[in-house]
Every structure is written in structure tokens, then in C-alpha cells.
From TrEMBL:
Gene Ontology BP annotations: methylation
Protein family according to the UniProt entry: Belongs to the methyltransferase superfamily.
An MF annotation (GO) of this entry: methyltransferase activity
Protein name (record): Methyltransferase domain-containing protein
Keywords tagged on the record: Methyltransferase, Transferase
This protein's record includes keyword Transferase: yes
Keyword Lyase recorded: no
Signal peptide as annotated in the record: none
Organism: Rhizopogon vesiculosus
Residue span(s) of domain Methyltransferase: 48-187
Pfam families xref list: Methyltransf_31 (PF13847)
Amino acid sequence: MSLPHKNEEYGTEAYWDTRYEQEADDTSFDWFKTYADVADYIRRLIPSKDARILMLGCGNSKFSEDVGLSFGYGGPVANTTDQMWEDGYKCIVNVDYSPIVIEKMSNRHKDRRPEMTWEVKDVRTLDGLDSSSFDIAIDKGTMDAMMTSSPDVWDPPEQVIKDCTAEVSQVLRVLKQDGIFIYITFGQPHFRKQYLTVQHHEHFYFTLVTFLVEDCLFRVPYHALASQSDVFRDLALLPVAAHKAEGHSDTDPIVLEGIKKEDFQSLMKVLYPMPVTRLPSDGLPATIEEWTSVLKLSKMWGFNCIHEFAIKQLEPMLAERPLDKVALAQDYGVTRWLLPGLLELATRAEPVGSEDVQRLGLDTALKLADVRESRQTTTVPVNWSRTSRSVLGFDYQAETTVVTASGLGALLHAILPTESATYLN
Ligand SMILES: C[S@@+](CC[C@H](N)C(=O)[O-])C[C@H]1O[C@@H](n2cnc3c(N)ncnc32)[C@H](O)[C@@H]1O
């Protein structure tokens, strides 16, 4: 057997071709473990002898074949009556990127074990193998060979990461939904596990979370919630992605007590907008009611950017609606709406009525009435042009109401939270 001059050569096709060329046709070598060493695990993991098995980088190992001596690091292994094929697993596709070893192995087995096939394939592409067509994929030492080009296991070069993740994603492609990937390695688990999960895209790989809001299940990407709100970020400390965690499935949702379905739906429309949509209802919220829902929940859960966005969306909608403005400002802490809103209410023509009491509360409504009563009115000349007057068709006696600064100030102080009092100064 030809050993490489440098360890990295194990990661090259040329090394394996040369090695297999130089070896006698009947040479076998099993890396790390023989089938007999791991047969108990295999039988447990693969209860069905009809399972379709893919052997990745088979080399000239005896793992998948039959009776005879095989050689491990400790020398010849005597008990080989339980090789995989002999054990009853007949449907095995063996692949390796060395055409030399594939030819030799095929010649060795084609007559005695016709169900087993030998194919030249690179495990990084697995070209020609159908998706979802294998029950089991086994790698014994092949990914290890691809990793030998890395002098530093803690910090593998980009190419090693690419090769290993390519193999894993191909394995996932060819395995059936409930297929199993068995990886027998010489390496420590912590250096290997990182390759066994294909990379998740930093932006476009979503963990979904299920919420129950009233009688309705919402299943949404978790990331946007956690990145915008401290409340949901703290929830991320819980193992939301774990299979047993609350929120993982429809049968075990996170219950959002006391939240209205419509309110939550409006917030979701802002978090997950569908810019290219055929249905108007799929776009951003459109009505004051919907934006009020967004204002409310964004305040409650600390979605600060969304709260600010909702304020901006509502501003033009509330331009002519001072009562709504003040009521919403009070309810959801929009202090910058209070002063202009109250000023409008204190100077409008209609007196304080039941709707004001209902929306603002009795206390505020009474204070507002006080301010209105104590207001001073004065006639202010307005520079109407002759044209405007004639267009309007009546003789206008301009009058403007001036609310005393002290009266409005007292009202605002009574309404505003303490921390906003500076707003008045
Ligand atoms: C360390 S040997 C293991 C052989 C065998 N699985 C065993 O357990 O004895 C690595 C084998 O993987 C093959 N190999 C390495 N990289 C490969 C790749 N990208 N695609 C297919 N085979 C590859 C080599 O040709 C070699 O036969």
C-alpha cells in the first residue's frame, strides 16, 4: 500500500487512483472499523434488509461485502461472517471517485453479488443519483479523507468546508424523508458535527413558530419577531427551534392570552409584508383600525421601529381627527401628538361631549371643558383679500381663539405622564 508523502494527499483523487492502481486486484483495506465491529449498530439502525443503501467512498473496503479476511489497523480481522451483504443487506450502491477502485471492485463482485452495484461518483455531487431514493447513506472515512487538507482542524480552509457541506447536502438530497446518514469517523465529534448540518443562510433560513391567538393558529418566521422586539428576543432564549419546545407545532403553540386575532394579524402584516401580492388584504395595513392595532401591540411588545412606523402611517390619517389623536396618544404613549391634539380640541367649535368623555376619560374631558371655559377670545384681524371674500360669498369677521397657556399647560400636565412633562417647556 502506498502511503502519501503528506497527509493532505489523502484529500486528492490522484493519490487514491495511484494507490488503488498499485494494489493487487484482490487487496482489501477497512479504515477504522470493520462491519463486524459496528454490525450491532447497523442492525438496529437498519431493521429492514430491503433498505436501499448508499456506500459513500467505498474504496476496496469489505464493509459491504462478504465472507473473508479483512484488514483493519490491528491486522487481519478473523470473524467476517457478518459482512453487510452476507448479513442480508443486498441492495447496496457503492460509489467512489476513483474509477480504478470501482472497476476492480465491480469485477470482483459482479458475478457473486449482482444486486450490489459499483459506480464512479463524486460524493460532492452524486450526479445521476435520484433524489429521495435511498433509505441509508454510509460514510466511513470518506469525509475524513476530504478533511486531511486542513492543517488546522479548528479553522478549516474554505474548500474543506465547501466539500464537506456539499457532501452532506447531496446526502440529504438522495435520502428519503426519513432516511438515515451514518457517518463513521476517525475525528472528534465536535470537529465533525459542524459539517453534518448544512449551512443555514444568514438571512433566508427561517425557524417557524406557532402562536395561538384566540381561536386561530399563526405560524410565522421567528427571526423577524426576535430581531425587532426584546420581548420576543427573550423568548428566543427558550429552545424554540427544538422539537419539543412550545411553539414548535400546531399541537403545542405559544398561547398569546388576551390578544385579539385582528390586532396580531395587523402586526404580522407589517412584520411580513408581501410586496408582490395580488390580494389587497395581503399588503400592509390600510385602515386606521389596523394601524391602531399595530400601534398597540408594538407598544406592548417593544417593537420600537414598528411603533415609530405606525405613528408615521397614522399621522396623515388623523390630521382631521383630534379626538382620535389624543385618545391614541394617551393609550399608546405617543406624547408628541398630545399637545397639538389637545390644542385642537380646546379650540374647536363643538363643546365637550359624551364621545370625548368616552374616549378621553371623565377626568381629562372635564379638564378639557375647564380649559375651554377659561379660554380668552380675542378678535384677530385676518388679512383676507377682496377676491377671497367675494369667492367665499360672505363678509367674514375673522376671529381666532386663544387658549391661555396656563390652562392648557395644566390640562397637559394632568394628562401627560411625568416623564413627558418636559415636552411642555
Ligand atoms: C479513507 S478511504 C475509506 C474507504 C472505505 N470507506 C473504508 O471505510 O475503508 C476514503 C475513500 O473515499 C474516496 N473518496 C475521497 N473523496 C471522495 C469524493 N469526493 N468522492 C468520492 N469518493 C471519494 C477515496 O477514493 C477513498 O476510496
